[in-house]
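## retry 2 of 3
previous attempt timed out at serialization; input unchanged, resubmitting
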Amino acid sequence: MPLSSDHAGPGRVSPVTPSRAAIAAAFGTLYFVWGSTYLAIRIAVATVPPFTLSGARFVAAGAALLLWRHFRGGVSLPTRREWLGAGGVGVCLVLLSNSSVVWAERRLASGVVALFAAGTPLLIATFNGHRTRTRLGRRRRIGLGLGTAGMVLLASATFAAVHEVPPLLLLALASSSWAVGSTFGRGWGQPSDLLMASAAQMLVGGALALLAGIATGDIAHLQAHAIGLPSALAWLYLGLVGSLIAYPVFQWLLSVADATAVASYTYVNPIVALAFGVLFAHEVVTPRTLLATAVLIPAVVLVVTGAPKPDLVVKEEV
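## retry succeeded, writing output
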């Protein structure tokens, strides 16, 4: 899975022109799978502690991807410097961001969490502008303004529903950490092979999340006999389908499709997540949340489509 990626990064061209059906199927995979991961997290975290859930998922996916890339793809293992760079990104994207999202889903509806995650491209656009010292275009300025209003509205609606501040702070930490790792983290030395780099990020970030679970007593609360079949299947879905399958699909799309079109998943996933939450978890969407959605999604569209292609950085699912 692409924990930190920019559209110009792969720089690969598919040697065979793919069919429209294949491209449509790939887009459908990103929209459906990454939109459904929020519901899977909510199901899994019901019986698996947050740090354990996040750490075990990414260690398993990262180790499998690293071994496959090294032994089947012939890619060298990361150097010490590359491990440090990838590890720094893994701290931002797995330990601080994904683990915070998992914690927040213990209190908040999965669709609401997905909407907060949709605001991350707004921060990425801001951080990337500071990093590259480039001016924001008109579309992005309008998008950032709308996005800020949408996030304020969403936060107020969420607080009115749960009357808790910690989950909101965790989501703010998650978005900020992901934005830092996806922008400033691009300058940290990492493997040139994107699959190997992502594997190292997942492996280091997941291992640190497990260590955090040990330090905080999170793992001590894990009761294997209490893990139900739905939670186990949700965890397998997150690691296998959400990470190992969807990530190569994403990389393939970057090599055959327009970069801006690929980035469309950043505003489709929250809609899918909201629908899944309502249909399968009986989550309630309030009128204020719907209004926030109507403001936030167009804002993200403006930010993503208003970026020059070399500067595009995308956010992945959780």
